[in-house]
Amino acid sequence: MEKENLEELFAKLKDNFDTEEPNTGHQQRFLEKLNGSKGVTSLNQRKVTWWKPFSIAVSIAVILGVVFGQLYPEPTIDQRVAEISPEVSNAQFHFAGLIEGQIKELEAENSPQTQKIISDTMAQLADLKLDYNKLEKELLKGGNSKLILSAMITNFQTRIDLLNDVLDQIETIKNLKKHNDANYTI
Length: 186
Known about the structure:
Shape: rod-shaped
Structural class: mainly alpha
Largest sheet: none
Number of strands: 0
Number of helices: 7
Radius of gyration: 45 Å
């Protein structure tokens, strides 16, 4: 029954149907009006975001910086001094070995009678090392290189002389103790 009613309805309206195509962009305009009235933006409109490409570029730059820093680390002060003057580097290697040997010898002589002189010597050696570090930095800044190199060598010689003098004093203290102990008999 309903099927017959629908067929009759379509038969009556057959000549009244609109068969014209809508204008170009009709669907887009319709969606814009529909979404505009509801406060919704269209899916076809892309919001321009600048922060995504920027954050990607910054991330790449940071990664490259870290990789470059790991592959090509900044040379140490000793390496830069060796570039300026290889002679100082060789002298430093030689003197440092002598100084370390004498420091070990000095520490082996540590006793209650020599403790004060050893601690004072270590403090003086630390001061001389700080002075040497300052001389290295001055050399790197481009100061009078001959004068600075001479001062660096003198610093090493001063440390060695100090250690030799202290070791001689410790030897004297030990000899005095043996001599005094030999004079006292029970």
